[in-house]
Amino acid sequence: MLAIALALTTVPTVDGQIGRPEGLYYKSWGVVIGIDDYQVAPKLSGAVADGKAVAQALQQLGFDEVVEVYDKDARFRNLKSILDNDLPRKVGRQDRVVLFFAGHAGVTRDMHGKELGYLVPWDAQVANASKAITLDDLKGFSRRVMSKHVLFLLDTGVSGWEVTPPQQLSLEGRLSPEDETDKRAVQVFTAANKGEALARKEGQGVFVQALLTGLKGAADENKNGWVMASELGAYVKQQVEAMTGGAQHPQFARLDGDGDTVLVEGKKSAYRAGPEPKTEAERTAAAKEEYERAFSILQQQKSVQEALERLNKAIEYSPKYGDAYVLKSYVYLEMLPDLNEALVAAELAVKHAPTNPDSHYTLGLVLQKKGRFPEAERALLQAVAVNPTYSDVYLTLGDLYAEDLKDQKKSVEAYQRYLETGGTENRVRDYLQKAGAAPPAPKQ
After folding, report:
1. What is the pLDDT of residues 43-57, one digit of tens each?
2. Residue ranges per structural domain of the chain
3. How far is CA 436 from CA 324, 391, 427, in A?
């Protein structure tokens, strides 16, 4: 068999990694809070409607649990219970949490004189920070809840928190969404800066409008089918500032970790954290990464279709990346049988990777299965011309001569060469014995 096949079959099957979900998250939680009819603070209009629109969007994104808390249900005691007890008891380490708040906010100062923002519950006054949900409370919640990713979407103008130093949210070159979601992320996104009025258009806040449009795919900056929190933040900020003529400035920050919350999950094969490669060297490196990822997927006997998608992505990055054609041909030959596709890939492999013996070997195997035996012979002979000690090719040549071309003399020569190069098939020795040909002497 092909060397690729040997490599793919020598690794034991892995049913799943302990502690890691089959998808990106075990469970997704949404908490949506909207307050219009404040008990003592000035009443608002549209906060509940905006909250319901966001709740619907999260449900459409497949969130497992979306808790909706509106008006008097959003009293201080209830909100504290949700943040301090209910969710921390239920949310696991492999989950994600998105919390949306629409209502009043304020800013006070802590004991060191630093600004401390807070959210106003239904039964609190705007100027009463003692009965509020501070941003420190939210940070404390993110530590207690232990989920991998927490995203706060605050449809209000607030500031006053400490954040980690700015850095790239996604490390260039990381290709696995599972790896990316293993990195902790606590992120916050507010509708405006402190003291700024929230603009509304056609009965809905412009922040929520942009948010919903972004979640439908408009925020997918690199057009790979994935929407990350960082992409959503950049998109919404640009849209809101444009719609308000620069009067409203959404704020996006990371409170903890160096990961990025996944909001819309695309195909795994399309995922690439960081910018798309541009130079030829970058594209070749990206093609190699995709090829290696595909090879690893096949080794672990996971999704053949995903492996094929990654091979196609490698070829898209670098159309002359011959090894990707070799593996693609093998996939169509043995795993997703399609001899026509296998032949196309094998011919391109020979074209772009002529010094790889597997290019010629795979082409020979495809041609043999298609019944084009003389052409198969030429391809296999070229494989051993590139690598004279490739025993598997001699075995295939022996079978071709013995079974298809009916040339016993050549089959004996090929089988003898197979044994000389380390082959161990007993059937070859039996064939040589019946043909009256002595097997080669064992190497000393």
Report:
1. 999 999 999 999 999
2. 28-269, 278-434
3. 43, 22, 14
